[in-house]
Amino acid sequence: MKQAIVARADLGMGEGKLAAQVAHASLSAYEDAGRTARNAWKGEGQKKVVLKATGESELFELADVAEREGLPHAIVRDAGHTQLDPGTVTALAVGPAEDDHVDRVTGDLSLY
Amino acid sequence: MKQAIVARADLGMGEGKLAAQVAHASLSAYEDAGRTARNAWKGEGQKKVVLKATGESELFELADVAEREGLPHAIVRDAGHTQLDPGTVTALAVGPAEDDHVDRVTGDLSLY
């Protein structure tokens, strides 16, 4: 079981900002998952990978694939208090789910 | 309502690694919180701040304060598959809770 969190590398987010956006996406997708997937993933240590996207359109395309695959997922929009304009799409989380199922959506992306 | 996630700045973690550790701490402390605090925090948009610690001992000291204050909190140890030795303590999350209650623990720290 794993969760993939895809964050935009084109926004110039600082390290702390990036981490907060990734955490937000992670929790939201976790809550979109069923109890069985949640518990299996936690039991295995909450494996996460953080991956790079090049822009907003790529995040939406990946979210569409996740939706078609029936995978838990969540898109994050920043509230815009700091660094970014309000409503900026920053990250997408996919899973927790079986590794190969998540890889069908995010398997071609590079590590952040 | 907010959650503060304190991560070690002395480990030289890469951006993606840092984000994964922060997300892990965030979710674990969230699960340590009661339903009322969880729902109130999510209803306000999951406000998070990512802060710097200088080393392991500082994280443990802050965790002790959070425990005494009765705040939900969680320490993360890395599984050590990449970059870090297994069991390395990397991050602490405190909250979700009222802002001023979280600040009693982490109010003196710098943004990451």
UniProtKB/TrEMBL annotation, chains A, B:
UniProt-listed InterPro entries: Pep_tRNA_hydro_II_dom_sf, Pept_tRNA_hydro_arch, PTH2
Main subcellular location: cytoplasm
Enzyme Commission code(s) on record: 3.1.1.29
GO (cellular component) term, any one: cytosol
Catalytic activity: an N-acyl-L-alpha-aminoacyl-tRNA + H2O = an N-acyl-L-amino acid + a tRNA + H(+)
Location relative to the cell: Cytoplasm
Pfam families per the UniProt record, alphabetical: PTH2 (PF01981)
Function field: The natural substrate for this enzyme may be peptidyl-tRNAs which drop off the ribosome during protein synthesis.
Protein family membership: Belongs to the PTH2 family.
Name the record gives this protein: Peptidyl-tRNA hydrolase
